[in-house]
Amino acid sequence: MSDERIESQWWFNEKTHAVEQGPQSPQRDRIGPFETREEAQHALDRIKANNERWDDED
Length: 58
Description:
The chain has helices at residues 3-8, 37-41, 43-57, and strands at residues 10-13, 19-21, 30-34.
C-alpha cells in the first residue's frame, strides 16, 4: 500500500475515541483502516455487530 493511500485512509483511536486521517497514533491504539471518516466513526458499532453475529453463529 502506498504512503499516499495510507495517508488518505481513516482510523478510529480506541484510546481517545477520536477519528484520525492517516496513521497519527500508535498502531496498538488504532482500529482500521477505513475508506471514509463515517466508517471510522462507527468502528465500535461494527465490531459489536460482528461479535453478535458470530455469537449467533456458534
